[in-house]
Amino acid sequence: MAPLWSVYVLLTALVLLQNFKAHADDDKPLGSPFVQRAVREAIELVDKAYKETRVSQKQQLSKRSLKPSDLLRFFKHPVATTRVAVRSAEYMENTLRLIQQHVHRVHKRSLNATDLLTAADLDTIARVTGCLAIRQPPICKDDCFTDRYRTFTSVCNNRRKPRLGSSHTPFTRWLPPHYEDGFSLPLGWTPGRQVSRFPLPLVRDVSNKILRTRNEDVVNDLEVTHLFMQWGQWIDHDMSLSPHSGSIQTFNDGIDCERTCVQRNPCFPIRIPRGDTRIKNQRICLPFIRSAPACGSGELGSLFGDVNTRQQMNVLTSFIDVNEVYGSTDCLANKLRNLTNELGLLAVNEEFSDNGREYLPFNTISSNLCGRMGESCFTNENSTPCFIAGDVRVNEQLGVLTFHTVFLREHNRLARELKKMNPHWSGDTTYQEARKILGAFQQIINHRDYVPLVIGDEATMKYLSPYEGYDESIDPGIANVVATAAFRFGHLSIQPKLFRVDENYQEHPQFKSLDLHQAFFTPWRLIKEGGVDPLMRGLLGRPAKLQRQDKMLPDELREKLFELTAHLGMDLGSLNMQRSRDHGLPGYNAWRRFCGLSAPRNQGQLSSILRNRDLARRLIDLYRTPENIDVWLGAISEPFEAGGRVGPLLACLIGQQFKNLRDGDRFWWENDGVFSGSQRQALQKISMSRIICDNTRIEFLPRNAFKFRQYPQGYVHCSDIPKVDLSAWREDAQVTPCGSVPVVKHAHFSICKSSVRYTCESRFELVGGDTITCLSNGQWNQEPPGCVDPQSTGHHNIRIKVIQGGKGGCVPKGPNGKCIQSASQNDVEKVQLNEKNVKIKNAILSGKTSNG
Ligand code: HEM
Ligand SMILES: *[C@@H]1O[C@H](CO)[C@@H](O)[C@H](O)[C@H]1NC(C)=O
Ligand SMILES: *[C@@H]1O[C@H](CO)[C@@H](O)[C@H](O)[C@H]1NC(C)=O
């Protein structure tokens, strides 16, 4: 065995040497045979599980009836870019696990994997798994034009640590994770295993005993509208999405997570307690797939930092940048645009319209680039395809879909207005400027109108005192505890119904309000049942659910989540708590201490914090100690802060997060140089009500869309709601110090500081440098370029391409050779690096084959 093995290594080394002679200096020798074997085994395991998952996904999606868990998986399943990143992390994690198991077997004692690995070994593993490529720091450009707008991935927002807040990076940890085995297994993994000297209760047991609320017992919150709830989910979908593992079956033996109570990575099924409120058969489990691991964040010093402990990945950019409209990858962003003209629009539905207003496009545009899983959709007889948007959860329920639709319309409305004022702008400039304005709207409405109503007066003063400028040292990443627990506070304000009302804010005569479970994944209802307006009025004109200590989560969400047919519905409360254990979140008291709050040691102290003896008793009955209470549950149990909708712990966690998102965002709307003074003035007029007025047929509504008023008291006409005057965006081509901008036929241009950049209309090609700069002597530094028709002149394409490439400009592709997206140098390097890794990987794998 051993000799054979070394022959194989030798062979592989030879292959590698041959393949990479050119890179001999930067290719460190591959690690020990032992490490290699582990990597190879891990890659095979993961690839096999992925492949089998793919096959079974296909089968299930083609079936007519879907299980609720299919729906959750639909948006949690990693696709495209996410899949690449997740797969690398899974290779890495499985490699370390295999090494660990082996060591355990041989040495009969528990050692953690990294103790046995040299830095070079780790480097090898990272390289072969692809984690190294993912972690390579990108190079940030700083010319005026490329640095003017956010990147889609938000990479380079922070110029010192370019990945901070960007998509597909690990969540930020505010406290170290707490795993059962110290680095990877969820708390509560081993039944009966003690944490803080007590075993953890089953999450479903907690849900039954603490959260359970009958739909009809729900109490209304007469202060805030149901739209206040919907904004919460909307802003959450701007901040975080944690993907599942790419496999839905166990890695070593291929057991399907959906059909088993077997607990083995990545399956972490939710077990049913005795005397369950709904499920009588205790041998059934509610399916739960662990979130995918992420390649180490590397921000902790050494190359791989804390390589040992499992991190989770945020698929989205953390920044408040409306990524749910635009996408968090270049690929998706392009797919969502209308690139057939120079109008700067987002693509819209070409089959249906809402009384002349736009709908989102269907998710049917075929594209191999962006992956395939996400494009299939749930169809049955009277359904339409699903919609596509910048976030995969767009179809999850009709309320969030309504928001997506209205914000798409707002982008296009802005783009049309801007283009009217600035006909010299290219489609790209128009699109980016509209995107930038919509981003500011989102930040203003969120931080000025929404967050204070959530965290209350005191926390608002503490965390959102007036803006003092950008601080590069702040990590704008979404904290794991915020995505996994704190910001899920909003689940407690969801009504069991989605209301649909008419012009008089009365129950809609034709399209009655829906039980929430009838609104999950039913995009066809938007098109076939009255469009956006009845739903939007329902959000505006009806109160949110009130979070009360005795009326927590209605059955719609606890027994019927994603229940479309007679299948086993999911339980949102159980999911939240199981997820926090999966992510290794420390318990309630750890977070109380983190926030400088008292940590209750017993039932008496807990009951004085909660101001509720009965609840404290029931919590202690389950958890035995306040230390162990799942942080989401403990936090939502606290009474509200004055003027807010959460208790002190959540006010701290949510306040801190929104402060980081403001002060750590280089493109924050108030930051110097992002907008001009007059633009900032204009932007402040925005309100959610205005956006609704401009993009629906609704004419009367509450002035503040978040504050509940009983119609018609306090309702105003749209003409009474201030508008944003866009004239501050008129670009004056006459006033550069060098005089007016030279006119180039068939070209668009855009001004950035003292430079002007030209792009040609489609069909025309640029000759000369695309950018001219006004020098201090009042002269342009060079002649403006020309736009020529290649058919009529027969100009040499080659020269043109070189010029474009050299400037890092556009790479022509897409319809009619259109300039859709320039691949940055980073992308190119990343691809090259990836290709190299694939080669190394293939070499290792083929080495095995040649070995028998
Ligand atoms: C009808 C409305 C809603 C439904 C059906 C819904 C459903 C869900 C589901 C199924 C998950 C994934 C659970 C898991 O497996 O971990 C989730 C995650 C989440 N929800 Fe909701 N939710 C709704 C509204 C809200 C609201 C109002 C908020 C906040 C105010 C919110 C915040 C979040 C957050 C932060 C996550 C974690 C996202 C991630 O990082 O993956 N949700 N929600
Ligand atoms: C790994 O081992 C080292 C020393 O043996 C220890 O200090 C460290 O805490 C361990 N890490 C984990 C995550 O168990
Ligand atoms: C693109 O814009 C043009 C002009 O407004 C429109 O006719 C066309 O339907 C749009 N295409 C898509 C896919 O939105």
TrEMBL record:
Q: Does the keyword Membrane apply?
A: no
Q: Which residues bind heme b?
A: 491
Signal sequence span is 1-24
GO BP annotation list: response to oxidative stress
Q: Which cofactor does it need?
A: heme b
Report keywords, A-Z.
Disulfide bond, Heme, Iron, Metal-binding, Oxidoreductase, Signal, Sushi
Read off the SMART domains from this record: CCP
GO MF term list: heme binding; metal ion binding; peroxidase activity
Pfam families reported in the protein's UniProt record: An_peroxidase (PF03098), Sushi (PF00084)
Q: Got any disulfides in this one, which pairs?
A: 760-787
Q: Name one GO cellular component term.
A: extracellular space
Sushi domain span: 716-789
Family of the protein in this entry: Belongs to the peroxidase family. XPO subfamily.
- From the Swiss-Prot or TrEMBL record, give the protein name: Sushi domain-containing protein
**Organism of this sequence:** Chiloscyllium punctatum (Brownbanded bambooshark)
